[in-house]
Amino acid sequence: MRSIVDRSASALQRGHARRAPCKVRASDASSDAQPSTSGAPSSTGRLLIDRRQLLTGAAASVVTFVGCPCPICKPGEAKAAGWSYGEVAGPPAWKGVCATGKRQSPINIPVNTSAPKVDAEMGDFDFAYGSFEKCDVLNTGHGTMQVNFPSGNLAYVGDMELELLQFHFHAPSEHAMDGRRYAMEAHLVHKNKSTGNLAVLGIMLEPGGLIKNPALQNALDVAPETPLAKKSSPKGINPVMLLPKKAKDGSRPFVHYAGSLTTPPCSEGVDWFVFMQPIKVPDSQILDFMRFVGDNKTYATNTRPLQMLNSRVVEYEL
């Protein structure tokens, strides 16, 4: 993969040194600060850097999002009409419910808090994903690929029967935990078979994995470069590979809250289930996805800012 080096690693290190102190933990994601495009752009208006530098030294912060603004990223620009993550048509310019809604997503999820936690009383998820051989992968034109599934992939929690419609990704994660954002987040979008409402499972992805995640890799391999184009996956894409591992007691802890779509039209009435345990993927897969967000020309991000919780209650199934 060819790229243009607009800055050296030493320049990036100097840029980090000039910024305010950050919360730094190895392999951690960022705080609730949004990725920044404040670094000086090249003559083409893009911030590009050699792939090797991204994976080593100071530039590794683009993978780990260790609490500092990403100095070489830019918000993804839409190739489809209507909205984007950029300056002109980005989140501050989103209209309608996106601007006026009181139950919007994503949110910051309090984890280590002294406040009493409300028990979700839903029990664990039971997954029956088994029909995934015929998947279509769509370039949404809005900075991600969307893997569409045939009917028959079901998940059960509480009294809900949920059917998987599609999954897609964001980088960095849209939800935060105690102000910390992860490198990526997978959204598994379901339809509640009883109510017809949407229910989304959020799974955090963090760097450091040794083996490529098959679901993410197949999506990257198949996704067309042309906006709004769609291709069939010859291998099938197994969504089970995106689920976090079970804890020792066999559970997958999660939080539940009432929210919205994180992209326009930002419709509310969405049941959100955000899993507490992340999955690990190789740094290279995170970079490849960010490259896809950047139209294979730069490394870009596709994340909505955190929204106010307002009067909503976050329920915990721990």
TrEMBL record:
Q: Which SMART domains match?
A: Carb_anhydrase
Reported EC number(s) for this entry are: 4.2.1.1
Q: Positions of the region Disordered?
A: 1-45
Kind of enzyme, top EC level? lyase
- Cite the Alpha-carbonic anhydrase domain residue spans from the record: 81-318
The reaction(s) catalysed by this protein are: hydrogencarbonate + H(+) = CO2 + H2O
**Highest taxon above the source species:** Eukaryota
Listed cofactors = Zn(2+)
Provide the GO MF annotations for this entry.
Answer: carbonate dehydratase activity; zinc ion binding
Sorted UniProt keywords: Lyase, Metal-binding, Zinc
- UniProt biased composition (Polar residues): 28-45
Family (UniProt):
Belongs to the alpha-carbonic anhydrase family.
* PANTHER family the record matches: CARBONIC ANHYDRASE
- What is this protein for, i.e. what is its function? Reversible hydration of carbon dioxide.
Q: What is the protein name given in its UniProt record?
A: Carbonic anhydrase
What organism is recorded for this protein? Pleodorina starrii
Give the lineage: Eukaryota, Viridiplantae, Chlorophyta, core chlorophytes, Chlorophyceae
